[in-house]
Amino acid sequence: MSALVAERQATRPVTPGPCPMIEATRLVLRPHRMADAPAIAASLGDFAVARMLTRVPVPYDGEDARDWLNMATSGLKPDWHLAVTLDDVHVGVVSLELRHGLWHLGYWLNRFYWGKGLMGEAVELTLDRFFRRMPQVEIAGGAFADNAASLRLLSRRGFRTTGMTQVYSVARNGMVPLVDMRLTQSDFNGRS
User: Fold this and answer.
1) Is 147 in contact with 56 (CB distance < 8 Å)?
2) Which residues neighbour 45 within 8 Å (Cβ) at sequence distance 6 or greater?
3) Is the model's pLDDT at 2 over the cut of 60?
4) Which of 21, 59, 138, 179 reaches 20 to 30 Å from 131, CA-CA?
5) Beta bridge partners of 168
6) What are φ and ψ of residue 174, in 5° steps?
7) In this structure, what CATH number is given to the domain that contains residue 183?
8) Domains in the chain: how many in total?
9) 160: in domain
10) Is the pLDDT of residue 5 over 50?
11) What are phi and psi of 42, to 5 degrees?
12) 42-81 residue pLDDT tens
């Protein structure tokens, strides 16, 4: 092997492989399909959900969902975008996206499924599978300061607060305080 090929392989980012299917007792996490567009549009068309996310426009419709699904299902990025399904009904998303060399956790859940522990379970399963494939990485996470449920979810999984920033929320059309958090595999495995 030439020195140039070896150098390229050494600098190529390590990826977790294709988006998996994860089956649990209550839910199934699976790669997205274009047929998920109506369920995604219905969930993100609800301002109660969209207001807690940075990049979701209001109003959000089927075309927005199809645009996102085209990117999420293209296979052009190493990201994982898992559909959270309950009895084969799409109820949310858990994503791990590689942005500027750092993996970022994101998630949302249809409002009618809040308070049942589904997102906590989905995030737990996703992080467990991801860390088995990528044990050396640190994962960035965060939530708006007024999203107490999401901050609790992250803390219970071992995320530690690293600071606070102001970010623009498309849905809120303004700057919002975001609690920045980080997670390593040892933080995740070492929770009490």
Assistant:
1) no
2) 59, 60, 61
3) no
4) 179
5) 175
6) -175, 175
7) 3.40.630.30
8) 1
9) yes
10) no
11) -65, -40
12) 999 999 999 999 999 999 999 999 999 999 999 889 999 9
Which residue matches tokens 């209550």? 26
Instruction: Answer yes or no: is 3 within a domain.
Output: no
| Residues 6+ away with beta carbon under 8 Å from 80 | 16, 19, 20, 94, 95, 96, 126, 130
* Structural domain span for residue 177: 18-189
- What is the SS3 assignment for 96-162? EEEECCEEEEEEEECHHHCCCCHHHHHHHHHHHHHHHHCCCCEEEEEEECCCHHHHHHHHHCCCEEE
pLDDT in tens, 94-105: 999 999 999 999
